Structure to design on (102 residues):
């Protein structure tokens, strides 16, 4: 990994960051197109995007790219996550037991 990570000056690191930032919607589109998202996962990603503050435009762009890829994919919904309801119920129960932050 030594040859892959940017080790240059500040402008080079900024360029790497911007390139990776701009490629994230393309990566999201590919994961959607290749069947990596079911309807529940898309809904969770949308909820997570709505929680973001400064990064809201980028989060919504990523969600839109994933949703477009999933809509065009013949693999969408082929392998749904069957434990989602149980996992959400467990998360709600654990959150209810957690004391409020001090």
């Amino acid at each position: 990994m030594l040859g892959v990570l940017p080790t240059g000056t500040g402008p080079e690191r900024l360029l790497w960051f911007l390139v990776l930032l701009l490629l994230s919607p393309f990566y999201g589109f590919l994961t959607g197109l290749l069947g990596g998202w079911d309807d529940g996962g898309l809904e969770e990603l949308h909820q997570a995007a709505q929680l973001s503050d400064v990064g809201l435009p980028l989060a919504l762009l990523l969600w839109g790219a994933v949703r477009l890829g999933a809509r065009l994919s013949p693999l969408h919904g082929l392998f749904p996550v069957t434990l989602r309801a149980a996992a959400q119920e467990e998360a709600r129960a654990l959150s209810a037991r957690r004391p409020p932050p001090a």
Observations:
- The two ends are 41 Å apart (CA to CA).
